Amino acid sequence: MAEVSFPHAQERRPGRGFAALRRLPLLSGAIIAAALLAALLAPWIAPYDPAAVDLLRRFAPPAWMDGGSSLHILGSDDLGRDVLSRLIWGARVSMLVAVACVVSDAILGTAIGIVAGYCGGRVDSVLMRLADILLALPYLLIALVVVSAVGASLSNVIVIIVVLRWAALSRIVRGETMMLKQREFVALAKVAGIGPVRIMWRHILPNVMNSVVVVSTLGVGAVILFESVLSFLGVGVPPPTPSWGGMVADGRNYLTSAWWVSLFPGLVITAVCLAANLCGDWLREAMDPKSNRR
Amino acid sequence: MASLRDLTKPLLAAAIAAGASLVPWAAAAQSRITIAINTLGPETWWPQDIANNKYLTGTIGDPLVRLVSPYKLEPALASSWKVSDDGLTYEFTIRNDVLFHDGSKLTAEDAAFTFAPENAQNYVGFSRMKNGNIVSVEAQGDRVIMKLKEAIPFMIDGYISRISIRPKAYLQRVGVEGFNKQPIGTGPFKVVEHVKSQHVKMVANDNYFGGRPKVDELIWRVVPEPATRLAMLRNGEADVTYNELGASTGELQRYGMRAVSFGLPRQSVLVFNHLLRKENLPSRFADVRVRRALTMAIDREAVANAIYFGKDRAAALLIMPRDTPSLDPKYRPLAYDPVRAKALLAEAGLSGGFKVDLYAPNNLKDLAVLMVSYWQRIGIDAKLSLLDPASLNNAWFNRTLSGDAIILSQILANGVASLVYLDPAAQVVTYYSPETDALRVAGTAIVDPARQDEWFLKVFAPKLDQLYPVPVILEGRDGVFGLGQRVKDWSKFELHAMGFQWLTPQ
Amino acid sequence: MTQPLLKVDDLRTYLFTRNGIVRAVDGVSFHVDAGETLGIVGESGSGKSMTALSIQRLLPRPAGRIVGGEIRLEGEDLVAKSERQMSAIRGRSMAMILQDPMSSLNPVFTIGQQVSDPLRTHRKLPPGELRKAVERLLEMVRIPAPQTRVNDYPHQMSGGMRQRIVGAIALSCEPKLLIADEPTTALDVTVQAQYLRLLRDLQARLGLAIIMITHDFGVVARICDRVAVMYAGRIVETAATTTLFDRPAHPYTQALMRSMPRLDQRSDRLPAIDGQPPDLRQTLTGCRFAPRCAHASDICRQQYPEMTVVSPGHAVNCWHADRMMAAS
Amino acid sequence: MDYVLQRLLHGVLTLLAVTIVVFLLSRLSGDPLSLILDPAATAADRAVELARLGLDRSYIDQYLIFLGNALGGDFGESIFYKAPAFSVFMQHLPATLELGVVAIAVSAAIAIPAGVVSAVRKGGILDTAAKAFALTGQSAPIFWIALMLVLVFSVVLGWLPTSGRGGLSHLVLPALTLGWYSNAFLMRVTRSSMLDVLDADYIRLARLEGLPERRIVWVHALKNAAGTIVTTLGLMTISLVTGAVVTETVFAWPGVGRLIVESIFHRDFPVVQAAVTVIAAIVILINLAVDLIFAWIDPRVRLG
Which uninterrupted H or E stretch holds C136? Predict the structure, then answer.
């Protein structure tokens, strides 16, 4: 395809880095940064121990409401624990789960996808059958079975999510790898006698990174939501460790009377997922050379 | 958001007033009561799954003898009964004025059929009555005579009173499948419609021998999500809701809704792992001071008031005897005293505190979280694992929990359950300690309830401190029913689903 | 003299991008007479395609906008037309062929469906006639066995055939003007020749005017009557084909010709001329080619050269046109 | 045809592997005996019960027996429901199908047009609104949305029943909930694949032919994007199961999602095995169907 039809596509290229930066949804970035910061600094910024119960101060409403006090800015829950402190500590768990799952999935899914796509043949069909199996399993139910077998714990929840989720990404990476394999630079590298591992590492990996980053970013929200569903079914990250999903799930019995117990974590989940999704969308557009035209 | 609540009430009232005829589910007959419940179990009528299905079983049928309070038995379909001294022969005299829903008369044959050894498989969870322990059940005129191979402690309280009598002739005529399509019994309500996993519709049995129920129509609806059940109670879709202890009862209270607790008293206990694990290692739990410290660290009165709806209290004893033990200072629960608890730990050489695993079933989550928090204050670092009941039981029964672990468990709090649990033959040996071993065996051997009770108070109760399970909270009942506006009274709400006969509509 | 079929006057098309305004077409004027073929030649980014898209009023949205000038097709100003009016003109009065036959056809519709689409839209033919018309068109562009081919999908055909089908679609409503944007770039050399021959034949038969946008002087030589050379958004030289080949007057044209590939070579782009085309986002003074021109003098850098008519029909924008002519 | 056969074969192999996974996983979580036996049961009682359920055999034996019976459509007897596991599952299937089909249909009816319009008017108000809706929909816990719907429409407004299966009014909230997530997802996929297509040369050509814009968008472009959309619909079936678990729980909808969750907690292996196997089979078949539809839409796949 000749490059004449839309000259401005080229014209934009020199300034692309800056333009891209300018288009970074600042609010989304800020939300994610805030969540990460809260996760890192929880012990120092949380006003209370998130697990400390206080039966005399149950269901304290948020500070601005009748009966609220500045002791519990966002109110307290059914066991008198400070909602704000739990939100801040919850960031630690939720972000840890999200980041750990997404990063591990990215590594696992990418590795398997590249190997399957590059090696082809029997390796490919074995790995992809494996992915097929995972994709055909109702993964929530499998997670339930496994958790009820090994018990709910933070690490178990992470491992289960990772094991169940890599297949989708590996499919995408495999498809791209197969296309890249046909490209000249790979052929050239082969001719030059470069070994397959090195080709995959140096030539294929950088080229699939775009998709990996985009899919992974979009996965952050999905993982947080998945953990919340596990909590809803009683098999999420176990208490007293606070997780956002668990807080929403626990607070649902007080939806109308002590709405703050579940509303704030619900809003935080929504905000962070939204921010992650927006960033994912933005990355998709910024990294896809084709979408640059739009 | 603050105004949501204020907004809700007038809207709700308006909806009920103006829209009652427009909204189909609100357009109820005056005496129709809808009960939203978490589960009705497998919803089979034969076999009758007593463990999971007590409401259905109890509402359409009656047992021979009814347990009306933790220790009180009343005649139901049997006008009288006798137990032989060795506890091996039971004789029931069947009333002759009871009709099944199809109009046929209840006879001793029906009772004999219900308990026949070949039908024992139909009682899920009644292991001791299975596997050949029932030698024979015979009908002789208006009497039924049951012979056992081995005595079963609290046979009537624990078993007979929970099985409702099924019509032999009808069952044989229509078969199991037919019976499950249209089950009949002697109970206060008749089944008119049963849509599995959704609802069971019942109407009053005009000829009920205990008097016609005041409710014309009783609808059971299966609603697994507690928040949804509360919503149903609030918008009038349900008149009665089952509520798990803890969480949702607080919400009921906040709306000024009435609640009644139901079922047999239970209590939450701490079970120490060291005698339940495979390896026989020394354990810090063997020291009674440690066990006491764990108990005293928890403000049990506050916990009971806060999460158990004020209906429950700190438990003193593992087993609740017939006579109220609270009168006797000996049976008063250990008071909340974290300072003393710390001192006890120090005496036991654990002044630095220790780490422990706490396993709890997920329905006791709040209690477990509270305990972890309280223990933390005396330096005990407990790591909580919530398991679903089957996992917990399996871990426990198969002795797969290792190290010093504590299990939070819930058991029935009357003599029946406790003695059953203490039965040395039981696979699930729950509670024992070297000090009480001999006593356990002796107590189980007593068949006569009166003598057993005497034995309990005189001999066993003083030694309870030596038992390893530590009682934490005595819960009044199994759970709580929330009552909507159309339920006027529930005057005679007793242990079994029979209580639904006494529901009074507005 | 009768009015030309298409008259473009001082056309200015700018692209408003985030990084600045690109003056892609910056004051272009030319005309096309009925039945003649005008070649527009230039490097990539010189504004050829933007000119074509401006005529069709299908600029990339939302960046592209015509900011000045007139485009008169049979005397009517297209710039002033509404979108709806343009829809009626496109495909009927003028048609366009895009460069890539592989991607110009919708992969999920059959050839027949695609060829009949404009006929149905503009002519509203009943189904029976429609089918006949489609077969006739396919025959016209020399597709063998058109009766069976109508049910084929694009991917079942060769590149040359596809481009001929694109031609059939373009010609289906018998337009007066056909704009062909590098229609042969993606084709084999032999297929290229065939295709151009076909275009010539059709042109003769239908009395069609063609604007041939290309960077390939080989194509120009084969098919064009006149040529306009574009550089950096402006036309720098216009002449009859033979004249231009004989006596190119603009240094840019000369450079282009020197770098012209041989006909038997397939090429996607021009061999480079030293230097870079200017950044069209800047306000430019002087001759745009001056920075790359070996003959540039001070005036070249200060003032844009006026149009010089060096011979009838041969105009050039160069301060040194005379000297250049002499040199060629 | 070979293609279909090959895919079917792959499907069968996948299904076989699924049965192994489910079989082993369910055994991992311990036996159901502690739920069946009362605490007073003796070791002998336990042994009798184990033998009755066939759980005393080795895993391999158990699996082979299960597989053999399953081939004949017999998934064993439900431990909890005391009825054939397969028929227990089938009793619950219609409710889920009803809910799933309505949810998918509604969300397709909303999401596809919205995605198309959003792509055509990229950057416009409609696009922004649709994107905001889609992103928010994908960002909130589904059970929270469900409970909020109950609160608003059942408790505060009193328009719709909270739960249960019955007439149309009972279907609205669950379908809305279940459709919510897929709606958002489908809209995004539609939008992005339409954006890809609208950029293509053949769409420009269609414009150059002077075809009406409506026809270009809804026929020429959409048919090209349809392959991706249909594939997405296929992929959504499995995540629909997740949604169904939550939706059915909140709205007391008597479907298979709830059934399986409860069966997992009851350690009712036969039902879990039957359900997961059949669901996996359905998913595999749907994806096969999707591929065939894809091929039907896009001739390049059909013949390539």
Answer: helix C127-140
Within-domain flag for C89? no
Considering only CB atoms, B235 lies closest to which of D158, D165, D266, namely D158
Q: Say whether domain B172-263+479-505 belongs to CATH 3.40.190.10.
A: yes
Strand residue runs (E) in B388-499? 405-412, 470-475, 479-483, 487-490
Is-contact C179 C54, C-beta < 8 A? no
Q: What is the per-residue pLDDT across C64-76, written as a single tens digit (0 to 9) for each?
A: 888 888 888 888 8
Residues of chain C found within 8 Å of residue A285, distances taken between Cβ atoms: none
What span, in angstroms and rounded, lies between the C-alpha atoms of A255 and B238? 18
Q: Report strand pairing: B258-262 vs C234-240.
A: unpaired
Cα gap D277→D21, rounded to integer Å: 10
> What ipTM is given for this predicted complex?
0.76
Best probe of the A interface among C18, C99, C282, by most A CBs < 10 A, is C18
Query: ∠B114-B116-B120 over CA atoms, to 5°?
Result: 85
CATH topology of domain D85-297: MetI-like fold (1.10.3720)
Report d(CA C242, CA C221) in Å as an integer.
8
Tell me if chain D has a CB within 8 Å of the CB of B225.
yes
> What is the pLDDT at residue D210?
76
pLDDT band of B5, cuts 50, 70, 90? very low
CA A89 to CA A50: how far, in whole Å? 7
Per residue in B301-326, pLDDT (tens digit) is: 788 777 665 555 556 555 555 444 44
In order, the DSSP letters of D148-177 are: HHIIIIIIIS--S-SS-S-SHHHHHHHHHH
Contacts of A19 in chain C (CB under 8 A): 18-19
Show the domain range for C318. 234-263+272-328
Partners of residue D205 in chain C, C-beta under 8 Å: 96, 98, 104-105, 166, 169
Distance from the Cα of A137 to chain B's closest Cα (Å) equals: 22
Averaged pLDDT for residues D62-70 = 86
- Selected for mutation to probe chain B from D26, D34, D248, D256 (highest B CB count within 10 Å) is D34
Tell if the CB–CB gap between A145 and D13 is shorter than 8 Å. Answer: no
CA distances from B174 to B104, B170, B177, D245 (A): 14, 6, 7, 36
Question: What kind of fold does domain A95-293 have according to CATH?
Answer: MetI-like fold (1.10.3720)
| 8 Å CB contact of A225 and D142 | yes
The whole-angstrom separation of Cα D113 and Cα D120 is 10
Nearest alpha carbon to residue A244 among A99, A20, A4, A35: A35
Mean pLDDT confidence for B91-97: 92
Q: Does domain B266-475 have CATH number 3.10.105.10?
A: yes
Cis check: omega of the bond before D39, within 30 degrees of 0: no
Using the Cβ of C91 and the Cβ atoms of chain D, whether some distance falls under 8 Å is answered with yes
B397 phi and psi, to 5 degrees?
A: -65, -35
C-alpha span between B27 and D15 (Å, rounded): 49
Is C185 near chain A, with CB under 8 Å? yes
> Does any CB of chain A come closer than 8 Å to the CB of residue D151?
yes
Question: Is C55 within the bounds of a domain?
Answer: no
Between CA C278 and CA C42 the distance in angstroms is 14
b/e sequence D88-124, b meaning 16+ C-beta within 10 Å? bbebbbebbebbbebbbebbbebbbebbbbbbbebee
